[in-house]
């Protein structure tokens, strides 16, 4: 049984144009014909196509694929080893480019140029998840508070960031201490810590009214990447993110209530 160009294109997931090109270059030509004279692909043709697509997926150029398939003396393993070395080198190069891009994005996010050692010195275990940062930017980019926060962050010096992170670390210790001590999330101590966090944002980034603070806390409770910006994974406890979320919203209610 033979298969038409259209049929092979459909189940192989490649275009008719590609098959015609393979035929024109002699890489893969249909070897059967229908009673009406139409050229058809045989089962051996399909097996050859499978090999071609395998090598193409690995990035082999068509002329090298032809050499591997046509030359009985060609050692496919040698070709694969060479391709493996090339791909490994490309991966290494791409990884370096990723690191450069991450560094550039961190500079844009923080506004300060730091070496890897300085970044660890300043930020410690708190890291910027670039996927989350990008998604958060797309989510909040039209909100004035986010725009002001990013603009303000870009003006901070290394010394500013050192102070910011020291304040955050002290607050984090007090938060986990309250949580570990069993203080209720809607109690005075937890709400005071929530208010301290809100004031920290207002002081260093952007005015943070309680409704905005509540939206930030909502992200803490639903996205581990967001919560990791304030409490690194090594310092987290099960239930700590919901605890802070409750404290933030309780503090908002407290502040909106008449004195």
Automatic annotation (TrEMBL):
Keywords: Activator, DNA-binding, Transcription, Transcription regulation. Gene3D superfamilies: 1.10.1660.10, Antibiotic binding domain of TipA-like multidrug resistance regulators. Signal peptide: none annotated. The keyword Protein biosynthesis does not apply. PROSITE patterns: HTH_MERR_1 (PS00552), HTH_MERR_2 (PS50937). The keyword Transcription regulation applies. It comes from Streptomyces sioyaensis. Residues 1-71 form the HTH merR-type domain. One of its GO terms (molecular function) is DNA-binding transcription factor activity. It comes from the Bacteria. This is MerR family transcriptional regulator.
């Amino acid at each position: 049984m033979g298969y038409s160009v259209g049929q092979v294109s459909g189940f192989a997931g490649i275009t008719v144009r590609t098959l015609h090109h393979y035929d024109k270059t002699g890489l893969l030509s249909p070897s059967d014909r229908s009673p009406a004279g139409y050229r058809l692909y045989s089962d051996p043709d399909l097996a050859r196509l499978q090999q071609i697509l395998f090598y193409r997926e690995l990035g082999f150029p068509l002329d090298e694929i032809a050499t591997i398939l046509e030359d009985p003396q060609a050692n496919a393993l040698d070709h694969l080893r060479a391709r493996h070395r090339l791909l490994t080198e490309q991966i290494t190069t791409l990884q370096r480019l990723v690191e450069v891009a991450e560094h550039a994005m961190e500079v844009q996010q923080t506004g300060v140029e730091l070496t890897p050692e300085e970044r660890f010195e300043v930020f410690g275990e708190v890291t910027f998840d670039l996927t989350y940062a990008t998604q958060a930017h797309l989510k909040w980019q039209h909100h004035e508070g986010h725009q002001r926060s990013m603009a303000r962050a870009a003006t901070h010096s290394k010394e500013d960031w050192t102070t910011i992170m020291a304040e955050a670390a002290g607050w984090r210790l007090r938060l986990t201490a309250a949580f570990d001590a069993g203080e209720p999330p809607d109690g005075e101590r937890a709400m005071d810590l929530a208010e301290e966090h809100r004031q920290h944002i207002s002081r260093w980034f952007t005015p943070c009214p309680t409704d905005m603070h509540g939206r930030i806390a909502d992200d803490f409770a639903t996205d581990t990447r967001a919560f990791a910006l304030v409490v690194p994974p090594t310092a987290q406890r099960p239930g700590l993110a919901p605890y802070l979320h409750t404290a933030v919203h309780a503090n908002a209610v407290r502040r909106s209530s008449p004195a």
